[in-house]
Write a structure and sequence with these properties.
Number of strands: 20
Radius of gyration: 36 Å
Shape: flat
Strand content: 5-15%
Largest sheet: 5 strands, parallel
Strand order of the largest sheet: 4-5-8-3-9
Helix content: 40-55%
Number of helices: 40
Structural class: alpha/beta
Distance between the termini: 84 Å
């Protein structure tokens, strides 16, 4: 290491006045005759020791630390020189423990979750004796296939199955997909004279990968001839160079392929059969929420390290980043993180900490918040895993596997900072500088990522006009509607319905009422399905906000459903927006078109120097262009333009109504209502005269828009200490797995339920109940037999996302054999100290005798299951000598009960069979279960 430092220092000393002298890994390797991998390791150690600095470019260049950023020939100081050098700090919010080199996979996010199987397969492929197994990595674009291949290579080196001086050889098959001969020459090399221009022998990538690993990216692009070449080499370990006729060459190469396609359809069967391990990487969307958050943390950590400043992101920024990812997966997330951090850096360049808020986020990425609202499951999970602010401090990477294919080959922050200083030195104001460099950032990033097909812009601006709670509600309504009426709704359903709900909530806030005219009533009677569903939606909205929605709204909701379901676009009211300014009208119309996906609206921009005659002609032509037979609404910014109304009608024959003082919300509301089935121009005009904007819910009391009590699920059994505890454990396991922390599971005794319930409701919002007794709440009740036969994960999702599905579940019906199987499965999963196989038949016999004695119908399988499972708990408690407790008063009450003797005889019978003694306290709860069934 000292030799490397001395070499670098000596080189700098010989060139003190010109450009700073730099060295590269390759140069050090050749000059000092050391392995390249060792040179790289020592150079990076010198960087960590503060003796050298390095660039983020490729190839990486290393300088003496005092010369790292000097640029003597520039007359403008770098932005970095304005700030005192900061000391590197340890991270506060990201803790990374030491990980051994052999366990390199443990630092991959999701290695104990969505990536667990992939990691185990990779290790098996590498360590399998004697020479490992060839494998194929499959996954969508941007899912991390290249990164994972590099991790496999580092794992192989760390475990000494590949020599430390070897490098991973990467070959992109797409580069030679259409030329098998050229492909063969690059893979296997060629002999001198093999073709014109082959003046000397050349080795191929197989030679380079001998005793190492070859990564064949985009392997599906290999033509059949290329696949045959590879699998012949896999079979025999030998190959011939192009144009060579002598003895074949031998090589020992581990092959990893990567593809976004289905191997069975894109590769030859004979080729696929020779690759025994297929490692499937998950898409970003399929990863759990906490992994998505961790990925954001790591990527922001990389950016913080680049600029050596703390970066903070608000919760909304993190959600927008995650919601903005679509087909691009982790690669797209990385590009979006880089763009957001670059914009944040530009806006806070001269501050010690880069605090990024939603205002710093580009529009297209900001729309991820709305896209996220379409997926309630992910949104809820994210809320459980996010704090109000995420703070990342600069830190050395905890694991340097390899720069992936989405790593920028330059330091974007240096470009931003130095360009800003140059523009500032030229006297350009800060606003212009920000605009100029924002465009530059997009150009840099777009040009780099264009091959990956990522987009930084989407068409969602809905949250700028509508409260997010309304958008969340609308997404639930959309699920309800499509489930009942199918999917044949227009793509703008969420936008149109959100705006409608927001508009009438605003009217409610202002105390305005609207009556339904006879035309609307007659029209919706022809659509009974939509009318019935509209009634349910009206009730749902009322429950959501805990307010009374007038019945008249049912008809308007029904008309909206009809309109959004109708494929016909004929006869709509046209809308023309006219405003003074070079682009005022166009800007408003663009927003509306993006949100509502409509084409019956157009803009007329009128520069201040435009003559009135030309303005009139433009408006007239615009009216004709959007007229579909139902008239045109003209929205203008000044009252003087309204005087064109009658003249346009006379010259075009089109019925026109005009409203002035146009705003973007007014255009939105106009176009939305103009698209509604059966709307007349006069009705539209009258309704818009009283439009006061969209509701932000600020004037509704907080208590009406949100229930602030903690959520709870009730688990009810006879004692509150037996089956209920098992139910609680099952539910709690699912809640922990999903990282849901704001739902508590309460165990309750059926005996005390009526007394405890009022107090529970004071302190909790009960979202569901399950067990042996229905507490008769507004929340859904899941019978015990339904609960134990359902997937708990799915059940919790239904409860938290759409309890309507749970409410409609009918009690399951079992025959005797099915009842036995259900109980046996439950006992095996939830009872540690019992042998369910031996116990099930005595418990069934005991339950049967009780049912016969109290004349409970044999068809009551629900009671059979409840009673048997409670009895199983009684047996386990007796075996562990942990009986239930009850008051002396309850015991005396039991002894005085005329049915006690019959029950006691049957309990004694069970105790003899099992050789156990059951205390009287257990009999209290057994009789309570029986009495509850008889009363019901």
């Amino acid at each position: 290491m000292e030799k490397i430092y001395q070499y670098t220092a000596q080189k700098s000393a010989t060139n003190p006045h010109s450009e700073p002298s730099a060295v590269t890994t390759k140069e050090i390797s050749q000059a000092l005759a050391i392995q390249r991998s060792n040179a790289s390791k020592d150079l990076n150690q010198l960087v960590r020791d503060g003796k050298l600095t390095k660039t983020d470019s490729r190839p990486v260049k290393y300088f003496l630390s005092q010369e790292a950023y000097e640029e003597a020939d520039k007359y403008v100081e770098s932005y970095k020189q304005e700030r005192a050098p900061r000391k590197k700090q340890q991270p506060q919010h990201i803790q990374t423990s030491f990980v051994s080199r052999e366990d390199i996979f443990s630092n991959i996010i999701g290695i104990n979750g969505s990536m667990k199987n992939a990691g185990e397969q990779a290790k098996a492929a590498i360590l399998y004796p004697p020479k490992g197994l060839n494998c194929l990595i499959t996954g969508p674009t941007g899912s991390g296939k290249t990164y994972f291949a590099h991790a496999m290579f580092q794992f192989a080196k760390a475990n000494e199955v590949i020599s430390a001086d070897k490098e991973l050889i990467v070959f992109n098959c797409a580069d030679y997909a259409n030329n098998p001969e050229l492909l063969m020459s690059h893979l296997f090399g060629y002999a001198k004279g093999a073709f014109t221009g082959a003046d000397e022998e050349k080795t191929g990538v197989i030679d380079q990968a001998d005793h190492s690993m070859l990564f064949l990216d985009e392997i599906h692009r290999l033509p059949p001839e290329g696949q045959e070449m590879i699998f012949y080499f896999m079979d025999h370990g030998t190959y011939s160079r192009l144009g060579e006729t002598g003895k074949p060459h031998a090589a020992e190469v581990r092959i990893i392929g990567a593809t976004t396609e289905d191997p069975n359809s894109s590769l030859l069967d004979t080729f696929v059969r020779r690759i025994p391990i297929n490692i499937q990487l998950p898409s970003f969307a399929s990863r759990p929420a906490f992994e998505k958050v961790d990925l954001v943390k790591v990527m922001v950590s990389h950016e913080a390290h680049r600029i050596q400043r703390t970066i903070s992101l608000t919760e909304d920024v993190v959600k927008a980043l995650i919601g903005s990812v679509s087909y691009g997966n982790i690669g797209q997330l990385k590009s979006n993180v880089q763009l957001v951090c670059a914009r944040g850096f530009l806006n806070h360049m001269h501050e010690e900490q880069i605090d990024i808020t939603i205002e710093d986020v580009p529009e297209g990425i900001r729309s991820g918040l709305i896209l996220l609202a379409d997926n309630r499951g992910t949104s809820n999970e994210l809320s459980q895993n996010l704090e109000s602010k995420l703070v990342i401090q600069p830190n050395e990477d905890s694991l340097n596997i390899q720069a992936d294919s989405y790593e920028l080959p330059y330091n974007l922050y240096d470009i931003i900072g130095d360009k800003a200083e140059l523009l500032k030195a030229d006297g350009i104001d800060q606003e212009t500088i920000n605009h100029f460099i924002s465009t530059d950032i997009n150009v840099h990033l777009k040009s780099f990522y264009k091959d990956h097909g990522f987009s930084f812009y989407a068409d969602n601006k809905l949250s700028e006009f509508v409260d997010r709670k309304i958008i969340e509600l609308t997404n639930r309504i959309y699920s309800m509607v499509t489930e009942r009426l199918g999917n044949d709704f227009q793509s703008n359903f969420v936008y149109a319905m959100s705006l409608h709900i927001s508009s009438f909530l605003k009217k409610l806030q202002l105390g305005e009422k609207r009556e339904v005219n006879d035309n609307i009533r007659e029209m919706v009677t022809a659509y009974p399905e939509e009318l019935k569903l509209a009634q349910e939606i009206q009730q749902y909205i009322g429950e959501w906000f805990n307010i009374i929605i007038p019945e008249s709204e049912i008809y308007y909701l029904a008309v909206l459903l009809v309109s959004l379901r109708s494929a016909s676009q004929v006869g709509r009211i046209g809308v023309v927006v006219g405003a003074h300014g070079n682009s005022t009208a166009t800007s408003m119309v663009d927003v509306v078109k993006q949100l509502l996906d409509v084409d019956q609206v157009t803009a007329v921009d009128m520069p201040l120097d435009m003559p009135p005659k030309i303005a009139f002609e433009k408006l007239k032509q615009a009216v004709l262009s959007v007229h579909e037979g139902s008239g045109v609404l003209l929205l203008v910014d000044m009252g003087s333009l309204a005087t064109f109304n009658e003249k346009i009608q006379r010259e075009t024959g089109v019925f026109v109504r005009t409203i002035d003082m146009v705003t973007t919300p007014l255009v939105l509301e106009s176009v939305r209502k103009a698209s509604v089935f059966g709307t007349s121009l006069d009705d539209l005009y009258e309704s818009l005269k009283h439009f006061h904007g969209y509701s932000t819910l600020e004037s509704l009391p907080a208590a009406l828009t949100e229930n602030h009590l903690p959520k709870a699920i009730l688990a009810i059994c006879a004692s509150g200490e037996g089956t209920a505890v098992h139910i609680k454990n099952m539910i709690q396991t699912t809640l922990d797995k999903k990282r849901i922390k704001d739902v508590e599971v309460l165990t309750v005794s059926a005996v005390d339920l009526s007394q405890l319930l009022p107090e529970i409701q004071k302190h909790y919002q009960v979202i569901a109940a399950t067990g042996v007794v229905d507490p008769q709440l507004a929340a859904p009740f899941i019978t015990l037999e339904n609960f134990i036969t359902q997937n708990t994960d799915e059940l919790i999702d239904q409860l938290l996302l759409n309890h309507q599905e749970v409410e409609t579940k009918e009690p399951l019906v079992f025959d005797e054999s099915e009842t036995r199987e259900v109980c046996l499965n439950y006992l095996e999963k939830n009872f540690t100290f019992l042998n369910p196989q031996k116990l099930i038949d005595p418990l069934l016999q005991f339950t049967e005798e009780v049912m016969n004695n109290w004349q409970i119908a044999s068809e009551e399988q629900g009671f059979r299951i409840n009673f048997l499972l409670h009895a199983a708990g009684m047996v386990e408690r007796a075996a562990l000598q942990q009986p239930l407790s009850t008051s002396e008063e309850e015991k005396q009450k039991l002894l005085n009960d005329p049915d006690y003797e019959s029950l006691h005889i049957q309990v004694l019978s069970l105790s003899r069979v099992l050789n156990l003694t059951f205390p009287i306290t257990e009999e209290v709860y057994l009789l309570a279960l029986i009495n509850h069934q008889i009363v019901d």
